Prior knowledge:
Layout: H1 3-30, H2 41-64, H3 69-87, H4 102-120, H5 122-127, H6 134-154, H7 158-171, H8 187-196, H9 204-225, H10 228-240, H11 246-258, H12 265-283, H13 287-299, H14 310-319, H15 323-329, H16 331-352, H17 365-372, H18 377-387, H19 392-407, H20 417-451, H21 453-465, H22 472-481, H23 491-515, H24 520-530, H25 532-537, H26 542-555, H27 564-573, H28 577-587, H29 589-600, H30 611-633, E1 635-636, E2 638-639, H31 642-656, H32 660-685
Helix pairs in contact: 1-12, 1-27, 2-3, 2-9, 2-20, 3-4, 3-9, 3-20, 4-6, 6-7, 6-8, 6-20, 7-20, 9-14, 9-19, 9-20, 10-11, 10-17, 11-12, 11-13, 11-16, 12-13, 12-27, 13-27, 13-28, 14-15, 14-26, 16-29, 16-30, 18-19, 20-24, 21-23, 22-23, 23-24, 23-26, 24-26, 26-29, 27-28, 30-31, 30-32, ...
Amino acid sequence: xxxxxxxxxxxxxxxxxxxxxxxxxxxxxxxxxxxxxxxxxxxxxxxxxxxxxxxxxxxxxxxxxxxxxxxxxxxxxxxxxxxxxxxxxxxxxxxxxxxxxxxxxxxxxxxxxxxxxxxxxxxxxxxxxxxxxxxxxxxxxxxxxxxxxxxxxxxxxxxxxxxxxxxxxxxxxxxxxxxxxxxxxxxxxxxxxxxxxxxxxxxxxxxxxxxxxxxxxxxxxxxxxxxxxxxxxxxxxxxxxxxxxxxxxxxxxxxxxxxxxxxxxxxxxxxxxxxxxxxxxxxxxxxxxxxxxxxxxxxxxxxxxxxxxxxxxxxxxxxxxxxxxxxxxxxxxxxxxxxxxxxxxxxxxxxxxxxxxxxxxxxxxxxxxxxxxxxxxxxxxxxxxxxxxxxxxxxxxxxxxxxxxxxxxxxxxxxxxxxxxxxxxxxxxxxxxxxxxxxxxxxxxxxxxxxxxxxxxxxxxxxxxxxxxxxxxxxxxxxxxxxxxxxxxxxxxxxxxxxxxxxxxxxxxxxxxxxxxxxxxxxxxxxxxxxxxxxxxxxxxxxxxxxxxxxxxxxxxxxxxxxxxxxxxxxxxxxxxxxxxxxxxxxxxxxxxxxxxxxxxxxxxxxxxxxxxxxxxxxxxxxxxxxxxxxxxxxxxxxxxxxxxxxxxxxxxxxxxxxxxxxxxxxxxxxxxxxxxxxxxxxxxx
Length: 686
């Protein structure tokens, strides 16, 4: 090798190391789960062995039989607490390379002992159910305390504070105002319910975390080690890099695909964004717009079938339906979301006159698919297993086996023992944040079932949103709704319609506010317990109600002032965080409107499908999203005047809401805009 080649190789290696360093710093800044200790020596080996043992335990039980639900959850939580106290310092001010202090070993041991107590003495605890001994209560108190501290370290103070408020509410119920009052419970009763019951720490959220969620996270970690991430970016470049504004479309495609194996919006932004954001900037996109595109595309990964965010598995468990039904229900909303983002980046590229990447600089599609196309087979296999009736647990287990076998088809992708060891370690470390959130939010759910607060909140939301049939608002609503041809509207029906709209709005606000401080999974569990029942009271189908709060919990990552995914994108792009956040909100506008649409038209979730009307609803919704993109970007063939943008927004709403007459009006609006903008473009060209 010549001196020049050696020098170039050294520069490339140095650039790669600098990129990794920047990625690590960004992750630490915006993703609390990335603020772990960098361990070496025997401490690093100990943590690695515990993480690998955790993955091996879950891999074995998923393939050869689970333990009883509480035992499975207890072992899962014991591993989680051990890893959190060994990996995460008590304060962010502590050095990330200072090693593990002795008190964290003690806390980890206490957490493991209090969780494993349920496994070791399970038969005795079942025999004396409802009559806990003093030892039972002490172990329960220790688990609650260590769990709250572990969640504070790996997440943020909001979730443990919410759990503490829930526990205090259980105790001080008699002192609450009339609407919130209950008879109150002593400490023994609260600890017994949260620790030994099936509706507290070891409830449905932790049960799902210890089974489906962990295995899909492990599946994603295994796929990542095969080189799927780089292949997805190369494939996206080959498919979309040549088109107008190609790099932004590459970001949308690659982030959507990566989202199927990554459950974190921020992590997705940081991994794919390190490549796509500089690429977008290089062809002329503004830095804030590039960061916003990556944030919106990465966040949407959690709603992208077949492998969605952890909350989707919990939704399936709560609904009592196979996970594949939730994944199928999410297909059309995810399609509308990503179609909206794709159209907006196209219009922005047209507005700025941006071109794609020259063909010579793109990886050739044929050779790429020939050499590494088999990496997509595990994702196809997952879909097959789910459609064939396998449980998500068994589907993920089989998917890992398929990934391992296929990886040996190419020398670069082979899952050697060292790579498999790293994958099992990475999978466990990625899962502990979800486990802590699920266990802690279980106490909030347990508070709701113990005190009956969930039903009270649902009633309060409906009462707050209720519109009186005798009021002026109902009369105004009746006059507006009566504009729809063929509709016979009275003040009573208008009042009911307005009540439903306001209830949806208040539920959306609650989901967004909670999402600013809670992880997506915890946010969904709280809102599905506290807010979704309000939608049930108004006749909204359960699937639509849960999907509604699920979407807005995810959208919180894009909603200022706490838009973590957008701020991570801004960090990579070097742009103003707030401007990037506002742009993210604008680009994700379809994601804020679509949930309202499928509440009113559940066929978009494949509920009570009538093929003709389903096809009509999907087609008109896609056209509505197209008009919405004109409104947000302000461009179609030429710059849109303000009144044309307003007209596009009205047309978009008419096409999105169900109804033939409203669809026809929206199509007429599209025709008017098309004719006027085509004429304007010709005048400008002349």
